[in-house]
Amino acid sequence: MLYLIGLGLNEKGITLEGKEAIKKCDKIYLEGYTVDFPYSIPKLEGFIDKKIVKLGRGDVESNKLVNESKKHNVALLVYGCPLFATTHISLLMDMEKAEIKTKIIYSASVFDAVAESGLQLYKFGKISSMPRWQKNFEPDSFLEFVSQNKSIGAHSLILIDIGLDFDSALDQLEKALESRNIKINKLFVCSSIGTSKSKMIYGKIEDLRIKGGKIDLPYCFIIPGEMHFLEKDAIEKFSI
Known about the structure:
This protein is an alpha/beta fold. The chain has helices at 16-23, 41-48, 57-61, 64-69, 86-97, 110-113, 143-151, 166-179, 205-211, 229-235, and strands spanning 2-6, 27-31, 53-55, 74-78, 102-105, 128-130, 156-160, 187-191, 199-203, 219-223.
């Protein structure tokens, strides 16, 4: 059997149901390629009192977990919500084809935590991801969703690729916005939300660069759409 378990946003974010499921498992794996963890694996091991093996994308997308789940109770731990990434949906489909039982155990995700900004969740549009640019490869297609969201006044959540530092991400965003001829007034930044290092700031890109201070991984951007007056009042306390 496979248990797909959400970890929430900090090392104590796993639910009681998740901890109880882990006790039943012979093997505990951690999906480690979709997010920059804001805490160490040893801290998590100490909290769940089990040894954890970190898996890369190749392991998760191979038949490794399918084969092991035929003989053992296996847990795959996922930062935030266990079904945020499409990879995990594919894994569940593979388990179903192999007639292996699965159990999904949910926990809080970044999409829950961004509500702390004061922006109303039901007013968010499509979520996009900003990849880390490579030499001679600078994809800006993530802004297609931003354009669509702007057309209906919706807020845009932009998830940031693993290992992409804050200054580089701002550079990429500025360049992509210029290339796509998209104008924004201010940008909201959420850093390590749900942890003791949580930080939220709101301002123009040039002000974020100068006054933003240290931004810890993981972090995300929000481009606000049309705001209700209550949202405008709530978000201003984060202005820099």
